[in-house]
Amino acid sequence: MTEDKKEKPSENIKQEENKKDQPDVAETEQTEDVEGLKKGLLELKDKYLRLYADFENYKRVVAKEKEELIRYSNEELMKELLSVIDHLELALQHSSNNETSTALAEGVKMTLKELKTILEKFGLVTIEALGKPFDPFVHHAMSQIESEENDENTVITEFRKGYMLKDRILRAALVGVSKKPSQQVKIDSEEE
After folding, report:
1. Are 115 and 81 contacting, i.e. CB atoms less than 8 angstroms apart?
2. Can you list the alpha helix ranges (DSSP code H) found in the chain?
3. Which of 14, 41, 63, 128 is a good FRET partner for 163, with 20 to 30 A between their CA atoms?
4. Secondary structure class of 173 (helix, strand, coil)
C-alpha cells in the first residue's frame, strides 16, 4: 500500500503539470465571452450610428417641410382671391366704355390696386405673358392665331392673367399663341 501512495503523489504532480500546459477552461470561456462582448458592442455601435444618421436626416426633412409650409401657407387664400382680382379687372374693362360711371370705375381701380399691393407684399407675382415666348410651364395655350407680324410661338393674346406665389405657379396664364400663316392661304391669295 505504501507503493500505491507513492505513485499517487507523482500522478498528482503530472496532472498539475498537464493543467499548466493546457489552458484553463475558465480562462477560455472568459476569452470567448470578451470576444463575444466586443462583437456585440461593435454591432450596437453600428446600429447606433445608423439610427443617429437616420434621425439627422429626418430632422433635416422635417425642417425643410416646415419651412415650405410656412413659405406657402397663404397659397389657398391667394388662389381664392384671384377670382376677385379677375372680377375687378372685368368691371374696369366694362366701365371704361361708359362715361357715366367714371367715379365708380376710379373706386374699383383703387380697390384693385390696393388688393394687388397687399397680395404682392405676401409674394403674389403676376406672370407677364404678352409679347413673351410661349412657355408651357407658365402659359396655357387656348388658341393659335395666325400672324405675320409676330414670331411663331409668341403670346399675342391674354385671355386670363396668370399668377405665381413666390416661385410656385398658382395659376397659368390663358393665352393665344401666334403661328405663321399656312402656305395654302398664301397660294390661294396669289392665284386671285
Report:
1. yes
2. 2-21, 25-71, 75-95, 102-121, 183-191
3. 63
4. strand
Query: What's the CA gap between 107 and 65, in Å, rounded?
Result: 41
CB atoms under 10 Å from CB of 138, counted, come to 19
CATH number at residue 155: 2.30.22.10
Q: Which residues are CB-contacts of 63 (< 8 A; sequence separation ≥ 6)?
A: none
Tell whether 174 is covered by a domain.
yes
DSSP symbol at 134: P
Does residue 135 form part of some domain?
Answer: yes
Q: Quote the pLDDT of residue 31.
A: 83
Distance (Å, rounded) from C-alpha 105 to C-alpha 108? 5
Q: Under a CB-based contact definition with an 8 Å cutoff, are residues 131 and 164 in contact?
A: no
Q: Which residues of the chain have pLDDT under 70?
A: 1-26, 96-100, 183-192
3-class secondary-structure state, position 153: coil
Report pTM: 0.60
In 10 A of CB 172, how many CB atoms? 19
75 residue type, one letter: E
Contact yes or no for 153/62 (Cβ under 8 A): no
CA 104 to chain centre: 44
Q: CA–CA separation, 138 vs 151, rounded Å? A: 19
What total number of domains does the chain contain? 1
Residues in contact with 171: Cβ distance below 8 Å, sequence separation at least 6, in sequence order:
79, 82, 160, 162, 163
Which residue type is seen at 33?
D
